[in-house]
User: Fold this.
Amino acid sequence: MTENILDNRPVSIDLQETENNRALITAIEGDNPDLIINHFPGLVKLQAPGRLEINRESVEAQLGRLWETHEFQMAIVTLAGNISEWDEDRIVISWGPKVEDDEEDED
Assistant:
């Protein structure tokens, strides 16, 4: 029961509101049907229950060019949740386990 409550807690990302990020926001909206979007001056808050996905293919379709997931770092201001998955095809924000940083493993 506790696990189910944790799974449904909202996760969110705040993005700078720029021309390039509008395409990113549209792509995220398409991939997350339960997404709630709130606009603030210069900032857009995207919130979803339990899980939020950003898919490279969706972003590329909206931008009309190649997009690498590391470009997401240029758009994000803050997030609520853990980065549970981050590879060349997808970023997942959830309350699941965090992605381990490779540099920390070398210590």
